[in-house]
Amino acid sequence: MAVDFGLKLIAALVVLAGGMWIAKRLSRAFKRMLERRGAEPSLVSFLGSLVSILLRIFVIIISLATVGVQMTSIVAVLGAASLAIGMALSGTLQNFAGGIIIMFLKPFKVETILSRHRTARLALLKRL
Fold it and tell me: Looking at the DSSP assignment, which residues form a beta bridge with residue 124?
């Protein structure tokens, strides 16, 4: 029994190490693909980070399943955590969603000069 768990643990560590390596390579390839297609630098950064995080979470879940952790408990914990975080950050998530909309609709671009109507101040947009 202890030998079986030891073998499962070693297999999970191998899956974790290999999966993290593959996830890193895939996220780099995704970023390069976006850059070649001429995507905005802020969008490349955001989507690259999002893909990297999702791939790493996927690898961790597969590693835990290799050890023998039940997938239903993992899904339940992730769902509860997502709900709690979403409720706690509701105002922040509204701003985040607004930022995503700005990145996709592109009303502003990097190196755009912005002005404020009342004070006549100018600002250079360096990054989104």
Answer: 113
Secondary structure element (H or E) that encloses residue 123, with its range:
strand 122-124
| Residue 81 resides in a domain | yes
What is residue 94's predicted lDDT score, i.e. its pLDDT? 80
The residues of the chain scoring below 50 in pLDDT are none
Angstrom distances, CA of residue 59 to CA of 5, 49, 55, 73, 76: 19, 15, 6, 16, 17
CATH number for the domain including 29? 1.10.287.1260
Q: At a CB cut-off of 8 Å and minimum separation 6, what does 82 contact?
A: none
Whether residue 102 is contained in a domain is answered as: no
Q: Which residues of 89-105 are buried (b: 16+ CB within 10 A; e: fewer)?
A: eeeeeeeeeeeeeebee
pTM: 0.67
- What's the full length of the chain, in residues? 128
